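Open question from group meeting: does this chain pack into something compact, or does most of it stay loose? Before anyone orders reagents, we agreed to write out a predicted structure and look at it together. Recording both the input and the output here so the notebook holds the full record.
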Amino acid sequence: MSPTVSGLPEYMRLLPSAALARLGKLEVTARAAVAGSITGRHKSPYKGFSVEFAEHRQYVPGDDPRNLDWRAYGKCDRYYIKQYIEETNLRATVLVDASGSMGFAGDEAAKINGKPASKFVYAQHLAAVLTYLLIHQQDAVGMVTFDSALRRYMPARSRPSQIRLLLEELNRTEAGAETDLSTIFHDIAERIPRRGLVIIISDMFGELESIIKALQHFRYRKHQVMLLHVMAEEELTFPFEKWTNFRCLEQRALQQQLDPRAIRAAYLDRVGQFVRGLDLECGRMQIDYVPMNTKTPYDVALANYLVNRRA
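Structure tokens returned:
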């Protein structure tokens, strides 16, 4: 039995009415062909008799005469069948980074439930809304939560009860330990049984070269990938002025007093190189790279992206 807040299950806090009002009519569509099991709104790699023409093939005995192209017959004096692109449902898997670094909440972050959102809370809400949109499209959705190890793997399902199961899992998950993105991504790439859409929500902290190789594994397995790169404004601009005690959120014993003015230039250069490198490599692999700054409300950022993606 789920705890309740104002008569609603606690997990419903992840789907506030204002966000649903902004996002409820948007769609998450596949950019390329996907393999599915029921009729839906995404192009399939298989040819059927849907609404979008694909190609002709020569008539053979047993074909339905209703699919004959009489115009082609008039021109070529041969019988041809019209083939169409079949539409299918999408299989999506949402990967949510629950490592310690995701627990950072800067003062500039947009407020969720009355306080600045940590990167993880921001990620929770992104994952919840995407799950809601996909399930309501009759698509199959699964989820992975992870830090240094895979915490929970929930295979993709399209049944209505799936949204409750996924939201309950998101609601009970907290940001915790260290992370090893490349190892986790390689593991997940092998676990997902059929090609589909992989949505990664993470700050992507790690060694760039190994992360790129792991992302390539998803592409090798024919998955489309959407990377929502969540970072805080302070991580991107490093606005600190006074001597500050910086501590690691993944190894709590690590902390150090530093003069931010002495390291700002080197820090910003390194962060800039990492972000540009990740963006560039994602472009080469035809991965949707979506920078997300927690100072922008998650529903606004996601709505802007989905509208542009659809266009």
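Observations to bring back to the group:
The longest strand covers residues 80-88.
Confidence is low (pLDDT under 50) at residues 33-40, 44-54.
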